[in-house]
Specification:
The complex is a heterodimer of chains A (423) and B (433). Chain A is an alpha+beta fold and 423 residues long. Chain A folds into two domains: 2-217, Cytochrome Bc1 Complex, Chain A, domain 1; 241-415, Metalloenzyme, LuxS/M16 peptidase-like (Cytochrome Bc1 Complex, Chain A, domain 1, 2-Layer Sandwich), CATH 3.30.830.10. Chain A is built from 16 helices and eleven strands. The longest helix of chain A is centred in the C-terminal third of the chain and has 17 residues, at 344-360. With 433 residues, chain B is of the alpha+beta class. Chain B folds into two domains: 2-225, Cytochrome Bc1 Complex, Chain A, domain 1; 248-428, Metalloenzyme, LuxS/M16 peptidase-like (Cytochrome Bc1 Complex, Chain A, domain 1, 2-Layer Sandwich), CATH 3.30.830. In chain B, 41% of the residues lie in helices and 21% in strands. Chain B has helices at residues 65-73, 81-87, 111-122, 129-147, 150-162, 176-180, 184-194, 210-222, 274-291, 296-303, 333-345, 347-352, 355-372, 376-381, 393-402, 405-415, and strands at 2-6, 11-17, 23-28, 35-41, 49-52, 57-60, 91-96, 101-107, 200-206, 232-234, 248-253, 259-265, 312-318, 321-329, 421-428. In chain B, a hairpin with a 4-residue loop joins strand 7 and strand 8. In chain B, helix 9 (274-291) packs across helix 16. Chain B is globular, with a radius of gyration of 23 Å. Classes of the chains: A alpha+beta (423), B alpha+beta (433). Chain B: This is Peptidase. Chain B: Residues 63-175 form the Peptidase M16 N-terminal domain. Chain B: Residues 181-347 form the Peptidase M16 C-terminal domain.
Chain lengths: 423, 433
Amino acid sequence: MRISLNPGVSLSLISTKQFKTTRIAVDLITPLKSESLTKRLLLAGILENSSQKYPSQKILSEELARMYGAGFGVSTERKGNIHALSFNLECVNEHFLNTNSQLLEQGINFLKEIIFKPLLDGNRFDPKTFERQKEVLADYIGSVKDDRQLFATLELNNAFFEDDGQALPSFGDVESLARITNEELYKYYVECINNDQVEIIISGDVTVEKAKKIAASLNFSDRYPEKVPLFYVQPLQTQVKERVHHLEISQAKLNLGYSLPVYFQENKYYAALIFNDLFGGQPLSKLFVNVREKASLAYYASSSYDSFRGFLSVKTGIEAKNKDKVLQIVNQQLEELRNENFTEKEVETAKRSLINSYLSQLDHQGVLLSRALFNGLLNKELQENEWIEKIKSVTTADIAAVAGKAHLEAVSFLDGEVKNENN
Amino acid sequence: MKIIDYPNFEEKVYQEVLPNGLIVNLVPKVGFHKTYASFTVNYGSVDSTFTSLDDNKIMNRPDGVAHFLEHKLFEKPDYDAFELFGQLGADSNAFTSYTKTSYLFSTVENVRKCLDTLLDFVQFPYFTKESVEKEKGIITQEIMMYNDDYNWRLYSGIVENLYPHSPLSKDIAGTVESIQNISSKDLYDCYQTFYQPSNMDLFVVGAINPNEVIRWVEENQSKKQFPSAPQIMHSKTMINDKYDIIPHRTLRVDTSRPKVAVGIRGNIELPAGKMGLKYKIALNIGMYLLMGESSEAYNKLYNEGLIDDSFDYDISVGRGYHFCVISGETSNAEKLIMKVMELLKTANEAIGGQRAEFILAKKEFIGRQIQSMNSLEGIANRHEGKLFDGALSFDAVKILEELEMKDILQAVGEFIEPDNISVYQVLPKEDVD
């Protein structure tokens, strides 16, 4: 259930007794801009670790412990053309505890302190916290290359996307981080608080009246945020862009990026989900079976589909010398899907598997929260049955047609040798 | 069926031991869509060495054989279990740890068929020379992938330091060399030795009716005959020699930030049954008070720039071993190691002075246990079987409520000894020019 509290501020409530916890998410949403990628992430670090009332990590953690180990985090998410700064709190329903504490009330008061009363020094954040969080973020960005799989994924992303906001990693880059000043960051945060679209989502054993009261107590002012299309659409590229890196690595990584211009919940979306499932979305897919099982060429080979950006990516871990062979097998699988070279039984299995995971996710409170957010942003709510019916009605021809839309546009490849590493 | 009621959490656990010795635990979860089942053998990577009681001989198998067996069990002459689960609408998977191998599925439909599939494929061994040879290529790739993961290298490096000359020092998947020696005969031998119903347990949690499920399981099992298994004894301890810890090693790789691990090996024998769980929880609270996120020490190290969010401690408890790994990325490995060593040296004084923090820690741990009851996987996977006398996360809350500061001090005091500490570092290569 989604309720508009005041202009630009909405509440979604998922009332359920299924869980032993209550969750609250406060999402501040704005159109994605490349220059604010790093700013938002730095804000998340600062706000997660300090506030005026809880000036140190120790004091803040103790407050969470007092609320029976409430889970708390501030994070950012890039989805299509929007960018969210999210405050999340999870606390135990006191019904299951020997206590008189009102944990939900305590939790919302805690969130209020965090969001509206950051640890300040005049018109900037506490300089020590600011500098330390900047350092932490710089260290993280600097060490990304150490995670080879992640690095291969980021490089593919960078080669594939034309728009900077999409091409850069979700954490931005060191150059823009270095440029951010404390005063500027605080000014930016005040703008977020005053102008961003606000989505408050609550899940748990909570009545509508109580949820409304809690959400209203956050007291977000009226706002009229800029509306942008939710989906990122990029014109087809004619040339395949390639990135190659030589690193010390025992297993080479080959990642492929395809444009697949089919978007979330539109007509062909359900066929695209099944296509991805048949192609490389799970361990029974063509990629896994043919690259790993039949050809023994890789430990992993899988695909994933981003329906907010019309983007299909394939990742594999292989021996470097097999690069061309793997590329050829991957393309061959796509070709087979285009030519309807798959059985009714495979489609049936894919449909079952998608329905299984859709329903299974209803057992995860965190997933319910993010589903509610995207339904809210799209301003439509799909019922479970509707979703299942749409999956069931997809035909073989629909799947082949979607496969025909996938178009290879970027390749990232990491290889190299490991030598004399022991001391 | 035995029913254990936990009215505070509105949960019930149904337990049965079948005539063939298989232990069954069933936990219905109201409001859930999914059912999760795990079928676990008390057999893991460390059991490449065991004693045959028939002739009292110590048996050795190639490292990585338990994991190899896990991979191969899915493949049958006329079907692949993985595909069969897929056709039923279920996800399936398996994992091997030091002392356990688990086979699992999760599904929203066809629970009975899935259960039969799970029990049948695990209880019907079938290995051929050809398929064993082919698997070697796949597992080699898996080992190589882990080889590139420096956090994994850090962890296995410190465990190797703590337990040299023991099977714990070997990678769960074995090595590229050791798996070349695995034959289908090895797989059959290990299977017959360990995959006996009395050495296994079944855990089913989710959208189930326990009375119905137990009937299904009984029907399935009553149709099967199990050959009498050779009598064996698991290795009792992973410690060969009290003084054999490797104190310090360094690995240099192409990484940008130093990674440090300090390991502590528990030299005492783990208390039996539920007392073992109490000991594990006490150690966890002890470490939390000493260097958890809300400790004085953590905050100092963080603000000095010596640690970041990657800093953590992990207590690992299993059959024949328990140890703690404190690890993180740092800008100054040497200094961080020194600080952690100092903390460990005066651990008991530092912990004992934190009466107020202890009360808060108990609250936090209780809350987290209750949070974990939201997860079907969490409920099933936290079950350690015989190790903790069948204890579940529901039991942990009671243990926590009764825990006193003296329990923490006793556990930590017994655990940390100067001779039991080791350091492993993964450092960037030095410039050679």
